[in-house]
Amino acid sequence: MKKGKKIYEGKAKILFDTDKPDLVIQEFKDDATAFDATKRGTIEQKGVMNNEISCALFRLLESKGIPTHFVKKLSEREMLVKKLDIVMVEVTIRNISAGGLSKLLGIEEGIVLKKPVLEYHYKNDGLHDPLINDYHIEMLGLATDKEMKKIKDYSFSVNEILKDFFNKVGLKLVDFKLEFGRHKGKILLGDEISPDTCRLWDKKTNEKLDKDRFRRDLGKIEEAYQEVLKRIKS
Ligand code: 5GP
């Protein structure tokens, strides 16, 4: 697979063209940002760990029937993925109150929700990824009803699969964010699934093992990502 031109650089990843028009290379960086990129830093080896974690989770989801953009791991920091026309909607699923939900509704963190809560956010940095609903999505023409039904069904399925998987390795899946895209007329799960995009708490101690360690200056950031990787590989 020939690595071509850089086509996009985001906060945590870079996309490169390949010699195949429908495939791109997703390269993971060590850069970390939070709060609309007002907080910036580097997490040593994050790109390597997130690539390995994401590859493992995409393989797991594919094996359970969730269509994803994942093709194969290419190197320490690179995965080969199907090129997507990204749906500009971020899907968040929450199992335990934390972060944005606690702030939005004024509830303490750590409350186990009776059933998972799904949120949509408009993928728009300038507007700070505002919370939106199906009506806004239709109004803005971000996706069709049919596409959103698929996205919602896949998201809840991903939650069940990942909750069960993390539970088995001693982690609580508190919440996470997914992104989807279109590829040859189909909706596929895209982006990454890693401690950058999931909140993961140790089952016994509730220790945070995710990007909140960076966001909230809790220290031992690299160690937390390493611990998640170790458990996923166990
Ligand atoms: P919250 O809305 O509580 O800030 O985030 C909910 C979950 O989605 C967390 O696991 C968080 O890591 C993830 N998430 C939401 N938006 C983003 C984003 O723009 N970037 C990243 N890396 N994760 C996000």
Q: Number of folding domains? A: 2
Strand content: 35-45%
The largest β sheet comes out as: 6 strands, antiparallel
Bound molecules: guanosine-5'-monophosphate
Our count of helices gives 6
* Portion in helices: 25-40%
CATH topology of the largest domain: D-amino Acid Aminotransferase, Chain A, domain 1
Shape: globular
Q: Which structural category fits the helices and strands?
A: alpha+beta
CATH class of the largest domain: Alpha Beta
Task: Spell out the CATH superfamily of the largest domain.
Answer: ATP-grasp fold, B domain
Q: At CATH's second level, what is the architecture of the largest domain?
A: 2-Layer Sandwich
Based on CA atoms alone, the radius of gyration comes out at 17 Å
Rounded mean pLDDT score: 98
pLDDT < 50 stretches: none
Give the terminus-to-terminus CA distance: 30 Å
Order of helix and strand elements from N to C terminus: EEEEEHEEEHEEHHEEEHH
Number of strands: 13
